[in-house]
Design goal:
Layout (H helix, E strand, L loop, with lengths): L2 H12 L4 H20 L4 H8 L2 H17 L2 E5 L9 E6 L15 E7 L2 E83 L2 E4 L6 H14 L4 H15 L1 H26 L3 E2 L9
Parallel strand pairs: 2-3, 3-4, 4-5
Antiparallel strand pairs: 1-2, 1-6
């Protein structure tokens, strides 16, 4: 038996974990050793860095036991601040007994990530912030399943400018809409343009209108709303995006870039998450 496997066998002797967890730990250690060997590091140096088999096994026992007992994990860029630059809170899914009932704190920070989050940029199941992304979200710019904001986008959107499957707002775009000025499928409002529309100034385009017909209908709405700055600007904006689609493409590219930037912040801090009990860091 090679020195590598003798070392791992000794580690296994001292492990006090469930059989399936022992197999997982041993496979991880083997991969770790072989990865370093493939980089040209001598085996003796690798094993020396890992420490004695007994000490390494004790560390694994403590780590895996703690990991399965805590309710949640978190990371703060500044642990003494109530509103740090980055705050991440994740429920501990390996704690099967308590994961469904355990209460995790609200993530609060400039960048906040958690089941419940509040921040300048907030991401979570329930999120609140200037820029808010979540299943239920509220903020200046809000995107999610149910969203509420000055600018809101989602399956159900409520806001000043609302985009969604079901949207209510001053200016709305989407499928089923109600607002002051609306453009979509089934719409209602003071200025309403859709396949089916109802409003004081409503135009129904019917099913499958051509692009030329849509432009003509938009021109009619621009004329009808010329005495109303908000509605007039709304329909002009839609008309301009149809006539110059690169504007829409640019907006979508900016939105995509901003979203990726937010999740990049999460990604680069993910491995810094530490256990909520004792402050011991744990890398997933």
């Amino acid at each position: 038996m090679s020195e590598k496997y003798r070392y791992l066998e000794e580690v296994e002797r001292y492990l006090a974990l469930a059989p399936d967890k022992c197999v997982e730990v041993m496979n991880d250690l083997l991969v770790r050793i072989e990865d370093e060997e493939s980089e040209g590091v001598e085996l003796a140096l690798i094993l020396a860095k890992m420490g004695s088999p007994e000490a390494l096994a004790q560390e694994m026992n403590e780590t895996y036991f703690a990991t399965t007992q805590v309710d949640y994990f978190e990371y703060k860029s500044n642990r003494d601040s109530d509103f740090p630059l980055v705050h991440i809170v994740l429920k501990n899914r390996s704690n099967r007994k308590n994961s469904s009932t355990a209460k995790a704190p609200v993530a609060r920070g400039v960048f906040a990530f958690g089941h419940f989050s509040q921040g300048i940029v907030s991401v979570g199941l329930v999120s609140q912030g200037v820029i808010s992304l979540g299943l239920v979200s509220a903020g200046l710019i809000s995107v999610g399943g149910f969203s509420l904001g000055i600018f809101a986008a989602g399956l159900l959107a409520l806001g000043g400018v609302s985009i969604g499957t079901l949207a209510v707002g001053v200016l709305t775009l989407g499928n089923i809409l109600w607002g002051y000025a609306t453009f979509g499928n089934v719409v209602g409002g003071r200025f309403a343009l859709g396949n089916i529309s109802s409003g004081k100034f409503g135009i129904s385009m019917g099913n499958s209108p051509t692009m030329r017909e849509v432009k003509n209908y938009l021109n009619q709405m621009v004329i009808q709303s010329q005495n109303n700055v908000i509605a007039n600007s709304f329909f002009k904006g839609i008309r301009n995006m149809i006539e110059q689609p690169f504007v829409f493409v640019l907006i979508m590219m900016l939105f995509t870039f901003a979203t990726l930037a937010i999740f990049y912040v999460y990604y680069i801090n993910y491995n810094k998450i530490y256990s909520a009990k004792g402050g011991k860091r744990w890398r997933f």
